[in-house]
Task: structure prediction
Amino acid sequence: MALATGSATLLLLAGCASIPLGPPPVREVATVSDTMSCPDPILNPLPGAGLVPEDFEVVAVLECANGVTREDADGVIAGNEVRRYEGDLTEFLDAMAAPSDPGPAAVCPAVGYAFRAIWATDAAGRFVPMSFPLTACGGPKEDEPLAALARLEVVDRTSSGAGRVELHEATAVG
Result:
């Protein structure tokens, strides 16, 4: 009896690995806001994040980068940075609008994902929190969107929450 039960379980598990368990997750249209924020590293997409609304004309993309270091005359400063990208946004917007993967077709690993905070902005200064398409296991599919983002021009960098992490004077003293 135990052999029959074990064989049935094995067949059941083998069958599950080849059958997708569902359609891709539905990505909602993002909420338009008059403000934006850059939270510390986030484990979930930004609240209200999603696809850019059809009637929202994107003129730039803002990326929140956490833990950015820069050096000045006195030493090293670490903090958050907002990078503003401009140029032909078509490739980036298309990559962000790509569909999520269906599934999962297998057991997903028990891992956490970090989600980048990326916002679209229009000429009126309104913002839309964007969401990446997702893998079958719920992680962000970042490769294509981030490659497209890297090809855009960074036209502005703004630092926030910065703190001194190294003083040249202290380093010289030892």
